[in-house]
Amino acid sequence: MSSARDIESSIHTDLGGKMTYSSFLRLDKLLDCQEIHSDPAHHDEMLFIIQHQTSELWLKLVIHEMRETLEYINTDRLSPAFKIMSRIKHIQAQLLHQWDVLATLTPSEYTQFRYALGPASGFQSVQYRIVEYLMGNKDAKMIPVHAHDEQAVKVLTETLNTPSIYDAFIRLLDRRGFEIPDEVINRDITVPHQSNPGVLEAFRIIYTHPKEHWDLYEMAEKLVDIEEQFAHWRFRHMKVVERVIGYKTGTGGSSGVGFLRKMIDHRFFPELWEVRTHL
Questions:
Q1: Residue 276, exposed/middle/buried by CB under 10 A (0-12, 13-18, 19+)?
Q2: Per-residue model confidence as pLDDT tens digits over 92-135
Q3: CA quadruple 26, 32, 33, 38: dihedral, nearest 10
Q4: Nearest C-alpha neighbor of 157 from the set 197, 185, 190, 194
Q5: Closest Cα to residue 223, out of 277, 274, 169?
């Protein structure tokens, strides 16, 4: 039996002047962005470039989804946010598993084109910083790194001065009648949230009576999901860096593995982890 496949008569084949797969996705631009900088060109630089470009595309989608989530929280509509939060978790899984591909890069291969990066480093990723800001890890000292990029400074400053997803959720708890302290509601949102006994008590009530506060309980667990995934991503990042360059200084000037290790235990939503001890 022949395995040949005829083109079905209904398939569009006359595509002149019409929207095509390539034009819809702008593949002419997208696939022209993998410029090799090493000289002579090293085979594995393509892997390194595509790995990081793909990560930036996923980060762009995470930002898109997180901003929509913020809108839902700010307007007291948690139910439609749940699907988005689940989607973010799946995007994070894609980002996590991408490290498996980069881990195939051996130290001897990487050293042959690492010089081409100059001072370029993932630390300089504007989109990664936006995600951290949206999740609440605010640090204004990170913005001057992008002083050479006016648009980057603008969007980072705007995000720094916007309530994070956690800030917005805590304010929603206040609107729902929980006794959230004024110093939390009116705090400086340009710095990370610190654990507060009043917020912890609100979550203790929610977790003790989930049926009475189901949407708040569900949102709390969605936040735990994305923080846990973020921690997995950070750990995998550190281990891949250790595997590929050992304890060398990072291209951006950081201590490399040591610098990455410091962030693994960071908590974006501290009370959501602490409440488990108090139940």
A1: exposed
A2: 999 999 999 999 999 999 999 999 999 999 889 999 999 999 99
A3: 170
A4: 190
A5: 169
Provide the residue type at 54 as one letter.
Answer: T
Alpha-helical regions (H) of 136-213? 150-160, 165-175, 182-185, 197-208
Q: What is the pLDDT of residues 34-87, one digit of tens each?
A: 999 999 999 999 999 999 999 999 999 999 999 999 999 999 999 999 999 999
Give the three-state DSSP class for 77: coil
Taking the C-alpha atoms of residue 11 and residue 205, their distance in angstroms, rounded to an integer, is 58
Which two structure tokens, joined as six digits, stand for 257? 């593995």
Alpha carbons 183 and 114: distance in angstroms, whole number: 48
How many alpha carbons lie under 13 Å from residue 41 in its C-beta half-sphere? 7
User: What are the angstrom distances between the C-alpha of 168 and each of 90, 103, 108, 246?
Assistant: 22, 37, 47, 40
Residue 185 in tokens: 């509601």
Angle between helices 165-175 and 197-208 (to 10 degrees): 70
pTM of the model: 0.94
Torsion-angle region of 274 (φ positive above 0: left; ψ -120 to 50: alpha; else: beta): alpha
Query: Is 63:134 a contact under the CB 8 Å cutoff?
Result: yes
CA–CA distance, 211 with 57 (Å, rounded to integer): 38
Asked whether the CA dihedral 76, 78, 79, 83 is positive or negative, the reply is: positive
